[in-house]
Amino acid sequence: MRRAHPHMNTSSVTPHDFNMGWLLFALAMGAFAIGTTEFASMTLLPFIASDFQSTQPLAGHAISAYALGVVVGSPVIMVLGVRLPRRALLVGLAAFIGLANALSAVAPSLPWLVFFRFLSGFPHGAYFGVAMLLAASLVPKNQRAQAVSRVFLGLTIATIVGVPFATWIGQTVGWRWGLGVVALLAAITALLIRLLAPASPAQPDASPLRELDALRSRQVWLTLGIAGIGFGGIFCVYTYLAATLIEVTHASSLMIPVVMAVFGLGTTAGNLVCGWAADRATMRSAGISLGFTALVLAVYPSATNNLWLLIPAVFFVGCGVGLAAILQTRLMDVAPNAQSLAGALVQSAFNLANAIGPWVGGMVISAGLGLPAAGYAAAGLTLGGLGMWYWAITDARATHAVSTVATGDA
After folding, report:
1. Greater confidence, 81 or 208?
2. In this structure, is residue 326 part of a structural domain?
């Protein structure tokens, strides 16, 4: 067993013998369950609509309800739960995820499914926020981003394994069983966290008002802006990828899960690389990630006519998901007294991007510019995120300069 590191970057964790590798596995399993239920609901949409004898646009309200649950639930849970020990809060959140998905699996009607999907999204951001903070608190400061990326690895692997598996179950025995598997995974996650995570009492000076005080920081809002705008480019392309494969690339429908898995491989690779880079130069890594992603997205439309060009393009688009680990680490630095709320808010920002990206891409396609043109719109969104990054860099430098002058005068 490995002992907690003596130079952990938090004072809230009680020294405890625990295996960091197994704990990260347990935390990542929860992320895997969340990633599977979030993305598989999109691929299961035709089966859901058919089961309830509804149209896909109406059944799609269940997907929107999930995203709304993330946006609303993340900050609410984190503010109200700030005085709870992280292990207890994580166990409760994982159990909540399991219960909400179990209810979704037995929903008697579409309106009930929409409501249960809203509940399923409610703990999404809070789980990621607390899990990543717990992981980061148990390692030296120069390894935080890598610990965060290991937790987020569960979500990226979900795009490779979990989503295709849940889709296969939905096709063979019914979509309800796919959500049932997620509920089981969440229950196992709750049990593993209870057994593996070290006991960590709540911070004695923690309070909801202290958490909300972080919202006064311009750097917090700029970091969230990078996520909300810059990340939208990836979702702008991902949402219409299946349609592009069929209508533009003229690939077999059997290639859709293959290309989706390639995207998942890209997210996994990008997550690991960005986690490593962020521990060395957080904001520089964010800028490089955004610039690289914008370039790939700008090239993407030219690759859509050839499957063998499109596959590597999709892989590199997926690499842009690594930005999540970088921004999560950045928020730990700019909101040191409100890391719980900041960790949840970045998940809300990513889900805002999940709404903005498809909307912008849809407008471009509806304007008659074609499915490939979504790549240009996506590149524009990512460049918008890069602009927010530059604003954040210049603002931080200006604030540091003023602080230095004030200290010198004193």
Report:
1. 81
2. yes
